Amino acid sequence: MLILGIESSCDETAASVVKDCREICSSVVSTQIEEHKKYGGVVPEIASRRHCENILGVVKKALDDANVTIADLDGIAVTYAPGLIGALLVGVSFAKALAMSAGKPLIPVHHIAGHIATNYLTFPDLEPPYLCLVASGGHSHIIEVLSYTKFRVVGRTRDDAAGECFDKCARAMGFPYPGGVHIDNASANGDPAAFKLPRPIVAGNEFDFSFSGLKTNVINLLHNADQKNIEINRNDLAASLQKTISDILTDHTIRAAQSLGYKKIALAGGVSANTGVRAALSAACKKNGFEFYMPEKKLCGDNGAMIACQGSYNLLAGITADESLNAVATLSMEDI
């Protein structure tokens, strides 16, 4: 089975061909980071325009690299939710036209489900059920992966996501966009115990996250130091921030696994590339006797392979769409 996956939910135009659910035949990603860097973040209008310009070439290269034609495909998968609405529409419109003209099944894929699927591409033997922490710039979720196509959210952020906290704190510290990677690099030379940062707890669900207060605390700390002409050691603050976020994500995930009886834990999303998060959750799983899975770093960011992989399982489960498929900016995993 050959599935073409198309991803355009934010600022990467990506396409990939995946064989038999787990074998990557090609993966092409056109990133817009350098263009958005001067604005300090993604500009939705620019992102949408670049997707329009890049998508045909990206898809063609993905097919060429895999040495297949559209006729060889068994289906065309596309991210339809969630994400920047204009960016999503480019991918959805392109995939619909391609599927209809080629007479191939159109397969809708939820972006977070795609991130979870990256672990199948890294670990051929991984099968549901298991618990997955999905952390990225827009999402912080603890998800029960009940099957390849059924999910239950047991914890989520009430405000900022972990990646958003990393990026906004990094910008306040003077690091360029995207800030998360600079926090990660700086933390290697810092003292994680240098600053005592808050670890917010929210009422109502012990597994939910809140990173807004942590972000505000770091920004206020920097502003107060600037007003008093006090120099802050950026490496120490970066290390303290990274440890705090890593500990919060790890603590909630481990407690959720213990409460729900899971012995397998996976990590996914853009923040899964963070060395602090990877190390903290890996160590906690080892301490508690849990199996731990995390994707290769090259698969942590948005890519077409994760969409093709999840699309393969969706197709096997009979999950397809017709020409009425539309992009959706916000959609819970439980509403798929």
Walk me through the structure.
- With 336 residues, this protein is of the alpha/beta class.
- It has two domains: 2-116 and 301-335, ATPase, nucleotide binding domain (Nucleotidyltransferase, domain 5); 128-299, ATPase, nucleotide binding domain (Nucleotidyltransferase, domain 5).
- 44% of the residues lie in helices and 18% in strands.
- The protein contains ten helices and ten strands.
- It has helices at 33-37, 44-66, 85-102, 111-122, 162-172, 179-187, 212-227, 234-260, 275-288, 304-316; strands at 2-7, 12-19, 23-31, 75-81, 106-110, 130-135, 140-145, 151-156, 264-268, 291-293.
- The strands form two sheets. The chain has a five-stranded mixed beta sheet with strand order 3-2-1-4-5, sandwiched between helices.
- Helix 2 packs parallel to helix 3, helix 4 packs across helix 10 and helix 5 packs across helix 6 (179-187).
- 52% of the residues are buried.
Topology overview:
Blueprint: E1 2-7, E2 12-19, E3 23-31, H1 33-37, H2 44-66, E4 75-81, H3 85-102, E5 106-110, H4 111-122, E6 130-135, E7 140-145, E8 151-156, H5 162-172, H6 179-187, H7 212-227, H8 234-260, E9 264-268, H9 275-288, E10 291-293, H10 304-316
Parallel strand pairs: 1-4, 4-5, 6-9, 9-10
Antiparallel strand pairs: 1-2, 2-3, 6-7, 7-8
Helix pairs in contact: 2-3, 4-10, 5-6, 5-7, 6-8, 8-9
